[in-house]
Amino acid sequence: xxxxxxxxxxSSELDFSKVVNDFNELDYLSxxxxxxxxxxxxxxxxxxxxxxxxxxxxxxxxxxxxIFKVDKDTKIFNISTSHDEQVFENExxxxxxxxxxxxxxxxxxxxxxRYLRKxxxxxxxxxxxxxxxxxxxxxxxTLIKKLEGNEIKELAxxxxxxx
Length: 163
Fold this sequence. Notes:
By secondary structure, the protein is an alpha+beta fold. It contains four helices and nine strands; from the N terminus they run ββββββααβαββα. It has one domain. The strands form two sheets. A seven-stranded mixed β-sheet has the order 6-7-8-4-1-5-9.
């Protein structure tokens, strides 16, 4: 897996000891609870999450970014097709707590998210807004660089056409 970018309001310190190890999705329309979130880092534009309307671009400088290297032995459950999603449903009952016993993270591909949204399929991932990874085991991440707010704002102002 490629380097990952985590964005956080600059007034909030990054502290892995505060990561909750209970992974819940209260319902398909709500935010997920627990774990740690990243999106694949791209040095040209940051990451999909930065451009997914979750960050109000005029205030992007109020975020810090943390770029992580992913350990080579990391086990990630990738969802990029309806078949992958069916495996998640059948083998893990759509339960990330069960998944976390065998995998370090779940990654949902941006192309798959856009496909679901465009076609309005009834899926648990319909309201995920972009490519992202939900980490269950943060020990597989090594911080390699911190980006300050002005760097995040510069990336946020790049014009990309993927979402």
